[in-house]
Amino acid sequence: MAGTLTRHSSAAVHPRYERGSATNYITRNRARKKLQLSLPDFRRLCILKGIYPHEPKHKKKVNKGSTAARTFYLLKDIKFLLHEPIVNKFREYKVFVRKLRKAYGKSEWSTVDRLKDNKPSYKLDHIVKERYPTFIDALRDLDDALSMCFLFSTFPRTGKCHVQTIQLCRRLAVEFLNYVIASRSLRKVFLSIKGIYYQAEVLGQPVTWITPYTFAHDHPTDVDYRVMATFTEFYTTLLGFVNFRLYQSLNLLYPPKINGQADTELKPAEGKEYAMDSESYLEKLSALSASLARVVAPTHEDEVEMDEFPVEGETAEQMDARKKEQEALEKHKKLFEGLRFFLNREVPREPLAFIIRCFGGQVSWDKSLCISATYDVSDPSITHQIVDRPRVEQQVVGRYYLQPQWVFDSVNAKLCLPVADYFPGVLLPPHLSPFVTEQEGDYVPPEKLKLLAMQRGENPDEESEEEEDEEEEEEEDDNDKEEGEEEEEESEKEEEMKLKKMEEQKTQSNKALPVKVTAGKLRLEDKQRLEQEQQSEEKRLAIMMMKKREKYLYKKIMFGKKRKVREANKLAAKRKAHDTAVKEEKKKSKKARRA
Amino acid sequence: QDIRNTVGNIPMEWYQDFPHIGYNLEGKKIYKPIRNKDELDMFLEKMENPDYWRTVQDKMTGADIKLTDEQVDLVHRLQRGQFGDVHFNPYEPAVDFFTHEVMIHPVTNRPADKRSFIPSLIEKEKVSKLVHAIKMGWIKPRKPKDDTPTYYDLWAHEDPNSILGRHKMHVPAPKMKLPGHEESYNPPPEYLLSEEEKLAWEQQEPAERKLNFVPQQYRCLRAVPAYSRFIHERFERCLDLYLCPRQRPAWVWLTACLSQVNVDPEDLIPKLPKPRDLQPFPTTQALVYRGHTSLVRCLSISPSGQWLVSGKDSPPRPRHSGHAGHCWPGPTSLGGAVPGPGPGPGPPQHATICLVAICVEQSVLLVNPCLGDKLLYGATDQLLESYVAPEEERVQPVQWVTATMEEHGRGVRLVVQHSKAVKQVTWHGKGDYFASVVSDNSNMQVLIHQTSKRWSQNPFRKSKGLVQCVLFHPIRPYFFVATQRYVRVYNLLKQELTKKLMTNCKWVSSMAIHPGGDNIICGSYDSKLAWFDLDLSTRPYQLLRHHKKALRSVAFHKHYPLFASGSDDGTVIVCHGMVYNDLLQNPLLVPVKVLKGHVLTLDLGVLDVLFHPTQPWVFSSGADGTVRLYT
Q1: Which CATH number do you get for residue B577?
Q2: Does any domain span residue B347?
Q3: Which residue in chain A has the smallest CA separation from B193?
Q4: Which residue ranges does UniProt annotate as crossing the membrane (chain B) (predicted)?
């Protein structure tokens, strides 16, 4: 009786699902109703304010006992949206559109003009500030913004989205590129089949973005451009502010001015093809060949030597390492210093010009290709000409003719690679991703090994077949080593098997007890092996005592490790097969030649 | 014939379904002309009638009318955009009435209105309304030009206070995965997919694929085409950013592991004392006792450790053929069979009694093995014979029968006949009492017997579920009853339930108690072993999942801090289970040895484990018909 009573009263005090996690979350539909917004408006608001759904810990509890699939937002987030001034702007805009449509319908043109004059607009400044209270936060989130802006800037100026947006994206992207050139902060580049990846280190933060290859897009139909446009709206605001701040940090003028603009004004003939001044200005800027004007004229004392403050608890070795790293970085930044490049017209101009300028090289191109080319093909001081043709008809003595991959590989290798592999028409060495850092046990392609050796300064490169052969042999050795490691891993299992066998033998011998004594063999007990056995057994026993979830995690990690090893082995085997096939081919061709 | 439309200008479809249109003055229906031409007639008419082209149907009357020449002309003119009237001349010479000649008199002599001299009132009203609205700020004549620059230094004053709780709670979206070698336009040859791999890739669901593209090799940069899914991928990223639910991980280092920040898996392994330091414990198989032809269900050992009893499972035989299942040390002498589902012998521990209880089908046999000290087993016989039947017969749940002479010769002293098959029998520490479990659903499942008084009682009034096994507390008057999921602890003196232990297992199979009496282990068929600290809680102190299959039996050692569990996977796992006298210190459980040896038969492995009473040795009996001793 008492029991039932208490249960009843507790139910009266705490009905189910009215406190705890059930009240912390809200479904999307309910949130929409609470905000009194239509679904597109709600989506826009969420995108702009950076509100995302949350996965509750106990979904069933939050879902009030139901297991239906629903997306949940935090109630706090939605309440936070309630006070957003932009919501009102949305409504104003809706009213504006309604009025405008009405005026159009009645052909009241003066009203239309007046309404258009008073078109409500909103700014996203406060949202940027709110989402990224510090500048570093904004930098950390710059990847998607940059990729999006670079994509939008390649869109055609028709349909899909507003022309102003595309122009703005283009402008911001060019500004950012100019900043990266000015600060020399580019670190890695990668030619992928999707596009070109760049990674820059902006104020200590790695910023990665991808640009598509410059071809016309065939616009897919199953993509909602409104969503992308909303993201872009926010990203352009963010990127504009970030650009401003970045330019300020380098004492550059913003909006950027090309250094020595007076000169260009003197000879306006160059910009004649462009109807508008502003257009030619943006083009010049996007040519990426000129340096930018500074607020304060740069003096050579600018580059102050960094004072060294020993950090507490840092050993001399660590300091040395840091110093070395710093030096390597400085060297990397000046990779192309003093080199003069010329880009042939079949080469993608913008990425190459950007990369070369980022590392201090000088670059030019054909005058008819783009504005503000600085020197001509015939210039004798050109050291490298980037060519992407099977062969070059008229070669000028005194310069290297190279394929564009050389620039990319050199940047990633942090040194100017030997040019022989990259001559026009030569089969290029594989282009490796600089974003992969192989850990122990991972598969490392042999080209990477070679590169690492070169970075350590071990292999003075001499092109001779013998050496190559040797290298191949070395590679094989490496493979052998890897296999050896595998064997070690397998040896444990083998040991177990042996143990089992021994036990079986024992039992069998027991079975055959009817007494028969064989001469005992002196078994030399391998102490090390015994030790290992014991250790592995201890480990197995300890694993038995793990907590359930730790065990789960441990198993997962071990599974992952094993899979990795398997994959690495697979790759190595594939490579080996490929190499032998190539060798066979070579031999055959040699024989054919001899015959 | 003057058929006119009498209904007026109404939508004629109202009369669509009627044969008439309106009524005449007499109130008769005016019928529509009969229209019964089918398509063929229409076509023939079209071909044959020369006036077909100028025949139209009058909707008002439904009659066909042939247009006259004038009417056709009119239609033509209208079609050409000319005036309907033939005689109308649109190009008559204009008479420039007002400006042609200067006249001395005005054309109209009307004086100008007064309102043309004074400002308009209506306009004034409208303007004043607008002015008022402007003054009140209701309308703005022109939106004020926003003169703040579009971009400025937004983070000029970074305020540490502006970092709110929501920023700390923010779960940043994971960054896009960086490309690997396989995404290169010119990857090393091993990253290219072979034909089979490509086929497999194509057959996979897009969500299942490890790579969302097929690696490809191009000879030069010039040959690289545009990536057709570029916009798609950006779009999917956008969707992920605003639609994908994010979760704040409670267990931070789990995510650290999952996000591939290196957590050494070795760190996860708990640091346990080395088994070497916890010796002695059984490590190797020393002896195998053979002789049984089928499963060896159960084992028991004499207090001195000199004699071992094992019970075997076999197809039921006639009872009289021999039911003294006992076993002497050494694998040579095995007598009869012990039929029945679960016989459980248990020797008394008391120093003055030497008895083996054997359950055979529905009865429990008390056997004096007549081994060891002659004084001892003589005393036992004396004790049993000294029984004096009480004067008034008491109602008992079982029947106590003295053994016949023949049986007596074999050692059987007493037969306790139950109503149903007996599953288990267990002795009290004193040796006078023993408890038996009957496979039954009623309250008669557990019975407690007193040997000296030949008296049995049924302690429970109600059944609390299927009893798996029972156990006496070694020191205190407690009685443990394990049902499928719970272990109930009863106080025999006060005759009440003291505790109910939740095992967190699905089906308890066996139970053993620490000689100290404060700790219990329960083995279960869902391959778990639960260690209870009775002082701590009614839930397991630790749940050990060491075995891969169902646990059949668990045992504690009497002196050493050891316990063992035998399971269907054919292994016996010996664990170090140290219980400290200090109540604050929790027991230390360390697995020390996995003993293998039993061969799986019929999916059964080890059926019973038992420790030697004095030595750190463990006996195990298995389904392969052997008993093994590990030392």
Answers
A1: 2.130.10.10
A2: no
A3: A574
A4: none
